[in-house]
Design goal:
The radius of gyration is 24 Å and the shape is elongated. It has 136 residues and is mostly helical. Helix 1 (2-14) runs antiparallel to helix 2 (25-43) and helix 6 crosses helix 7. The chain is 59% helix and 0% strand. The chain is built from seven helices and no strands.
């Protein structure tokens, strides 16, 4: 967006100069669009945590209730792929796991004040990877 505005300002300012060089605004617009797309892709949040570190955090904080991807409190709401797709608000993805772990829900306590954002992201990566592998 800023690049598009800058290109527009540049075009406006160049109209007032003497001996203005010939500028191919089609190429300027293409360059601005490409730069804007690149900036958008770079600015996207990355939820890909460290699965190995997530396993350690999971074992220390979550396994009491969720060992092997199960749920000792609400047996139907496991961490298996199908159950996550059905019961997890927002669907089976790292962002939804992060939200659930951070804020808690029903009998599950919130870990937002107990674990760092990095630890929670790592647990989310571990949960999704383990559900993909069938918790083997």
């Amino acid at each position: 967006m800023k690049i598009t505005i800058a290109a527009t300002l540049l075009a406006s300012a160049s109209a007032f100069t003497v001996n203005q060089p010939k500028v191919d605004f089609g190429k300027v617009a293409q360059g601005a669009a490409a730069a804007g797309a690149a900036a958008f892709l770079i600015a996207q949040p990355a939820f890909a945590g460290d699965v190995g570190a997530g396993e350690q955090v999971f074992n220390a904080n979550c396994a009491a209730c969720h060992a092997g991807g199960q749920n000792v409190i609400m047996p139907e709401k496991t961490l298996e792929k199908e159950a996550l797709e059905q019961y997890l608000a927002g669907g089976r993805n790292e962002k939804s796991v992060i939200t659930q772990v951070t804020g808690g829900k029903n009998a599950m306590p919130a870990f937002g004040g107990r674990l760092s954002d990095e630890d929670i992201a790592n647990v989310a990566a571990y949960v999704i990877a383990s559900s993909d592998a069938g918790w083997e």
